[in-house]
């Protein structure tokens, strides 16, 4: 517990930056806001974030603004989804700038004179989110935790074994606090999206129901297609130049797949792309290392064990990967098949 | 999965017994009912059960009828809370009789001409409750499960290590399906009550909020104070005579405690009571064996490690035990201190 003290944001009202959007720091405060929205029969869209906002988050906000009367964003850096050796301490925290970016986002509703902006920001403390406390060491944890067994051990879970447990736990809490009609997540975290849909289905949740957990296509840098991510901020100028390699490798694998090549060859071609870049990077002392590139079924999330399975009526296949650039770990993915069939 | 097939109650409407109380078998059906109740601004009390109703359940129903506009009972034998070697297959299933008992229960509301009875019974199938399937073998399970770490390993959890995981998981699902304002549980399962209060607090649940998880005093046989339990049905005539021994032993420990004796002596005196009965029972070939008698703090559920800790402003202490009579395991408990201080 004590080790987390430095990261518990002090959320007394006086410490909050000025904001025209209401900032709510406790569940009790938020419930009053939510109750009023319900009385007024307003739909609520929800965009959960860990802050350090970029245009990827704004894509989620824009979709929520378009599809709901009211939009709530949460900003909470969740200790439970960081392993003790990971970057909880250094994760970018940029609240004043986040609020500026969010405030600037607005949407004119056609056939309506009103302009929609985000209606509330939920900024809970660690204590508010974890009433029984939280320790990053899973073995020392006390209180209520969730796991989505069979879906969080592969892909990202293989490299980060307690990650989805932390995600499932905090998102369940956030869903219960916010009680949204719709929730928006970025495709970049595709396994997270699919696990959360399953969680809502398994838990018989109505806020949101699984069909209202929306997967929004990954936002990319328009110049080189790098997937937008708060962790891109960690990259050196050199690393930033190399970062688009992961998506390039995935696109090569996708092309090979569409050309009818077996999975192993698709992965081999993608791996070659990374290897060539890594060799060059090593000359300037930057370590580039592929964590994985893999094909997984989108329903079971199991590694695709057939050479070819994408058929017209089948569920999509997830082609995903993770790449280390120095000490920064980046992820990306491509959905092969019809996104609308993701469950 | 296949091993559970025989226990999946077929819930097609034609298979249901006749009932004047609406029987709802799917979450979708129930949501319509719930939505209507919300529109009418009616409060909903919830009594989750595994059926095999007795007057203990009816005490919960009576309290719910008194405190809510509408009362919902669920009847669902939850596979996830039985270990593979436990009594899932033989657990008493008495639906037609359960519905008769529930229908007969009514309450005249003072200052109101209406007579309240239960308003709906939720009778989900295993598939409805576990959309990702359920295997009693924890290692083989897939899908979303909850654990309340640090509170489910002692007392009952020591003898039944996966029990509270199953309870936490199914009750979370039921709370999400029913969305009750109030929920009612019997004190006999005191650890379950306290874990569920913590679960609601940890998960920031509003339906119900932790203060609306109500602990109703254990209902007892008026002749010999045996705690009412569906598992009492397993007892032979001989076993039934011996069954009140557990409560007698707990009462002796309570008396010793109130006399100011240290915990160890209180437990020793209670154990003696059981030992004497066990010796007699052995003569008629009935094995009676004490599983445990223990004192636990009510907030942490940790074993009481002081000789004396009950002070005026402190939380209550739980004195609880489990007794085997042949192959039937009975539990009981006494709360030392102010029940209203249980959190």
Write a short abstract of this structure.
2 copies of one chain form a homodimer. With 343 residues, the first copy, chain A, is of the alpha/beta class.
List keywords for this structure.
homodimer; 343 residues; Pantoate--beta-alanine Ligase, Chain: A,domain 2; ATP binding (chains A, B); six-stranded parallel beta sheet; Rossmann-like_a/b/a_fold (chains A, B); three-stranded antiparallel beta sheet; disordered N terminus
Describe this structure in words.
The structure is a homodimer of 343-residue chains. By secondary structure, chain A is α/β, with parallel strands linked by helices. Chain A folds into 2 domains: 2-216, Rossmann fold; 230-341, Pantoate--beta-alanine Ligase, Chain: A,domain 2, CATH 3.30.1300. The first copy, chain A, contains 10 helices and 12 strands. Chain A has helices at residues 27-39, 55-67, 95-104, 126-129, 156-159, 163-178, 190-202, 237-242, 245-258, 263-283; strands spanning 23-24, 44-49, 70-75, 107-108, 115-116, 120-122, 143-149, 182-186, 213-216, 288-297, 317-325, 328-336. In chain A, a hairpin with a 2-residue loop joins strand 11 and strand 12 (328-336). The radius of gyration of chain A is 20 Å and the shape is globular. The two termini of chain A are 37 Å apart. At the A-B interface, strand 7, helix 6 and helix 7 of A face strand 7, helix 6 and helix 7 of B. Strand 7 (143-149) of chain A pairs antiparallel with strand 7 of chain B, so a sheet runs across the interface.
Structural class of chain A: alpha/beta
Q: What is the end-to-end distance of chain A?
A: 37 Å
CATH architecture of the largest domain in chain A, please? 3-Layer(aba) Sandwich
The backbone outline of chain A, from C-alpha atoms, is globular
CATH class of the largest domain in chain A: Alpha Beta
Largest interface: A-B, 31 and 31 residues
CATH superfamily (homologous) name of the largest domain in chain A: HUPs
């Amino acid at each position: 517990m004590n080790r987390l003290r430095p990261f518990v944001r002090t959320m007394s009202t006086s410490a909050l930056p000025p904001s025209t959007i209401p900032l709510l720091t406790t569940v009790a405060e938020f419930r009053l806001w939510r109750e009023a929205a319900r009385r007024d029969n307003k739909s609520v869209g929800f965009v959960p974030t860990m802050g350090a906002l970029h245009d990827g988050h704004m894509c989620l906000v824009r979709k929520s603004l378009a599809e709901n009367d009211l939009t709530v964003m949460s900003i909470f850096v969740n200790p439970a989804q960081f392993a003790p050796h990971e970057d909880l301490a250094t994760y970018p925290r940029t609240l004043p700038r986040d609020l500026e970016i969010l405030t600037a986002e607005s949407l004119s509703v056609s056939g309506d004179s009103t302009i929609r902006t985000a209606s509330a920001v939920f900024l809970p403390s660690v204590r508010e989110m974890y009433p029984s406390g939280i320790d990053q060491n899973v073995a020392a944890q006390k209180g209520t935790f969730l796991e989505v067994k069979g879906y969080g051990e592969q892909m990202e879970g293989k490299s980060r074994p307690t990650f989805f447990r932390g995600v499932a736990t905090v998102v369940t809490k956030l869903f219960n606090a916010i009680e949204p009609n719709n929730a928006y997540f970025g495709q970049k975290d595709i396994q997270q999206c699919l696990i959360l849909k399953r969680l809502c289905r398994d838990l018989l949740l109505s806020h949101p129901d699984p069909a209202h957990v929306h997967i929004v296509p990954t936002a990319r840098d328009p110049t080189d297609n790098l997937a937008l991510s708060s962790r891109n901020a960690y990259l050196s100028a050199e690393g930033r130049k190399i970062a688009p390699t992961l998506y390039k490798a995935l696109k090569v694998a996708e092309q090979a797949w569409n050309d009818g090549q077996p999975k192993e060859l698709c992965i081999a071609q993608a791996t070659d792309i990374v290897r060539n870049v890594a060799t060059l990077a090593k000359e300037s002392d930057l370590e580039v290392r592929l964590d994985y590139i893999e094909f997984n079924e989108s329903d079971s999330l199991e590694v695709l064990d057939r050479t070819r399975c994408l058929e017209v009526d089948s569920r999509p296949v997830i082609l995903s990967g993770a790449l280390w650039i120095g000490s920064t770990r980046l992820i990306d993915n491509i959905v092969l098949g019809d996104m609308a069939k993701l469950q």
